[in-house]
Amino acid sequence: MTFLSESDFLNFINRYFPLIHPNILLERGDDCNLISSKGNLCISSDLFLEESHFSRQYFSAGDIGYKALAVNISDISAMGARPQGFLLNLMIPEDLGSDFWANFFDGMSQLANHFDLALAGGDISRARFLGIDITIWGNINNRCLERKRCRSGDVLFVIGQLGLARTGRKMLETGNDLFGSLEAIKAHLRPRLFVEQAVSLSDFSGVRGLMDVSDGLVRDLPRFLGPELGADLLIREDNIHPEVVKYATSQGCCPVEFALHGGEDYCLLGCADKGVMSELKAYFPEFMYLGQVLPTPGLKLSGVTYQSDGFDHFSNMI
């Protein structure tokens, strides 16, 4: 199938996303849409650009569609909100035909349907490379879980795995999965999301704040703590996923340090009053204790000062 006009492409999108949805008040296709909200809306946006955030050398069209939406869902849930809908803007190269877009929208719509998200509208344009820009919104379930709410003595924790997506990315970049790193590869291409866990965390009064880990823990943790606090991390090798340990060891790296630098994990980083830690550990099977908040800036690893810049979007391009 060849798209002869913008209308052809928009009609193609309509095969995968319903025009009418309970989370929007107008049929998609007007100049704007109207959003129904019972309270405060949480809103975010993210770019997903070819050769900056993904490569078609090892991302399938379905993987691209899935992950473009997944990274936005992760941001919403990290505030303790439940995602409701999104706007989709596409930069479309001429070399991509209907087979690509069928798989792209199939991957994206599977995720949207899973979380009952409305596609409210957006825009499309020709471009030299593939780019996806999504704006997403959600409703605060109980309370907003913000950054920079930690207190000295609080416990730090994650829900999910550190370094697994980085392992998958390294394997895909080399094109040689020597270690059968199936979970790692899936973690990079189609990351697991922790929406229900994040919403549940907002119900625990002892949980002070939350964020998703997208640029690696050593870069995201200072952003989470704020400029006046630091942390002492107590992470053992047996806390790290076996595929991460196996790959890091093969490269002569310390598995714990390798995991700390893992970008695109999209696990949840949280802080809580230490009195609630046992309850959190019992409630969330994916809970992992990270360490303790310190009253002075800087990161320590098992009591030893640790310095690293971590991942940066402007210096770590694909």
Name its key features.
single chain; 318 residues; Phosphoribosyl-aminoimidazole Synthetase, Chain A, domain 2; 2 domains; seven-stranded mixed beta sheet; four-stranded mixed beta sheet; globular
Question: What is this structure, in a nutshell?
Answer:
This protein is an alpha+beta fold and 318 residues long. It contains ten helices and eleven strands.
Can you walk through the features of this model?
The structure is a single chain. With 318 residues, the chain is α+β, with helices and mostly antiparallel strands. The protein folds into 2 domains: 135 residues, PurM-like, N-terminal domain (60s Ribosomal Protein L30, Chain: A, 2-Layer Sandwich), CATH 3.30.1330; 152 residues, Phosphoribosyl-aminoimidazole Synthetase, Chain A, domain 2 (Alpha-Beta Complex), CATH 3.90.650.10. Helix content is 31%, strand content 24%. The protein is built from 10 helices and 11 strands. The strands form 2 sheets. Strands 6-8-5-9-7-10-11 form a 7-stranded mixed β-sheet, sandwiched between helices. The protein has a 4-stranded mixed β-sheet with strand order 1-4-2-3. Helix 2 packs parallel to helix 6. The longest helix is centred in the first third of the chain and has 17 residues. The radius of gyration is 20 Å and the shape is globular. The C terminus is likely disordered.
